[in-house]
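Assemble and predict.
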Amino acid sequence: MDFPSFVSEREAGALPAGFLAGAVSAGLKGEDIPDVGVLVCTSPGVTSAARFCDSGVLAAPVLLCQQECDLAAIRAVVANSGNANAATGELGMTQARLVQVGAANALGVDPSEVAVASTGVIGVQLPGERIVDSLSGVGATLDAHNADQFAAAIKTTDTLDKHAALSVELPSGTVNLSAQCKGAGMISPHFATMLCFVETDAAISAERADMLLGASVERSFNRISVDGQLSTNDTAVVIASGASGIEIAPDSEDERHFAQALDALLLQLAILMVKDGEGAARVGRIQVTGGDEQATEAVARAIANSPLVKTALHGGDPNWGRIAQAIGATLRGTAPLEFNIKLEGIQVCRAGAAIDFDRAALVRAVQRDEVRYEVNLPGTGSVAEYFFSDLSHGYVTINAEYTT
Amino acid sequence: MDFPSFVSEREAGALPAGFLAGAVSAGLKGEDIPDVGVLVCTSPGVTSAARFCDSGVLAAPVLLCQQECDLAAIRAVVANSGNANAATGELGMTQARLVQVGAANALGVDPSEVAVASTGVIGVQLPGERIVDSLSGVGATLDAHNADQFAAAIKTTDTLDKHAALSVELPSGTVNLSAQCKGAGMISPHFATMLCFVETDAAISAERADMLLGASVERSFNRISVDGQLSTNDTAVVIASGASGIEIAPDSEDERHFAQALDALLLQLAILMVKDGEGAARVGRIQVTGGDEQATEAVARAIANSPLVKTALHGGDPNWGRIAQAIGATLRGTAPLEFNIKLEGIQVCRAGAAIDFDRAALVRAVQRDEVRYEVNLPGTGSVAEYFFSDLSHGYVTINAEYTT
């Protein structure tokens, strides 16, 4: 992932002007391990936007944000790991509300300005009071350079740090952009299972922020798969402090550049999630062309989610029949289908049939850290690209013993 | 799986009257390892029916059967393991035709009476001539008690034998029924990825045989999942020799009993496939009630296919949040959804919320060889039941190195 030329990286942990972040421990992940991250914007003219997954089993914090927050004016975030507060019913809603109100009190803001988020085990009641108690110490941890500590506090099975801080040169001046994510398992192309918090000191209307966030999520977190499993807690929030004094006008050159930077930022973090997929050792990148939008999307998702493709990727097995299987399983009833397959640029299948290729070269090519797959369907309609992790012994180990 | 009271098991390998089976080696799986199974019906009044999967990437033998066989009058089967003859184009079709004609010559029947089937690696040309050469020796292997040898020849990653021979007492007299299957990986609830050949000495019209086969497949092979992956080669064939002299009339009591026996036979073999799923150690049984047919089917499939549910089953982890996740991911946009979950009869979730339960009892219960999950959705419309295997290190090992 390369950033556009007008984007440069800032020191890790740096927040845009107008933001403070910190972390405390409520003992959800063990004694004194930070597991509650807090983010707050101190500027008066804050705007925001948020996106959530659409699972039929939405976690209490997601429902609470949708019901109790002014999503266009979120100023603070309180996010815990170690407990998803999902499938917890009315009590779960009450605990989430307790955390929201407790954080509002600790930060001196209105509860409707506080987004809550949780990640961890499903079906266990959240000890809201313990989180509220821990928040009494949060003031001392808040700092304009603590985005990394915030990001660390929301990790579950994540092994890589998932945060970035950028400086973006817009035609009207320089603004800063940062984001912190978590996500390693239960990652699906239907809104990856993750939390993502984005901050900027640009001034942008809530409507335009919402539009940009929606488009960037569609091109990043909706394009990755660890295991094809949709979570109950997905949340993405962008908060704009306006503290840079640079205003991003609708449809301006500023907005186009800002959107490109946001796209690149979220795609980088999304790919990091795949790379850090539970037990993952390798990344697959599938591009499907031809057909129509529905067909290319469906085939790319099926390949990205296939345990047979993922295990072959894991083993460096040049078994492209797994790709053919996923194509056929998706486009049922279309046989004989004339599709082409390339692995790392080496064509192995043309018009639906195996062709001769340099097997030794292919065996070498599929050993790479990232393996590129290309599928071409009949027609010229569309392109879909997805990123996915392999399926390894590590994934089995992590998930066979998640709660025990 | 219990058989109906009027069904009893015969010795392993026994075929109904009018059938012979045998196996030869074409060297597809190694020197002198039987890898080509042959079945032939010697009775004059043969009838048959066949079902195939509907993948967009159908294997050449499936396309050939559909194009060249009289599916109501199949008398012989030639099935090889070690090579799927899928994604092999026109050359693959020619090789399949070569095998069909070669088998017809060896058995003295018409090519249109010979069903061909292949299973194994996708995307590698089938050495048809080697199979035809091997068939010159098939006559000496044909025997009325060799169904087990036929079944062994079509195994790929299967470790269990998958065949059964039954005696069925119908009101009009006793008929025999036998079946041989293969299937361990690429097993999905959309027609499990398998080959299945069924023989009977009952006399039944091709139309009724087709109807009964369709219904039984729907209730057996369409209700199991190893890895949710649809194959390119699925084939189920039933052949009736009529040699018992017992005629099964449409809508008769005979037909109802025969249908029950066929259902029980195919379900037993289907569950055996799950038990023998690649790397599988344990079987999950999910029953979803309530809602409507579409919802119960979709939720049961999602649970049966979920790698998170499968790894939890593998590890004996009582993590029912994985079930909640799969429900929510399937019924998107319905939150808050009031569903109930039981594991081994222990209720853990009521109206969408965690409840107190005896955790020690649950931990013990999920250690069993078969674990029963029950999900209840709002409404009273429907019931769906699926069987699935766990996801283990063995699955990863087998599929990471399938062709290498």
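Residues 302 and 326 of chain A are 6 Å apart (CA to CA).
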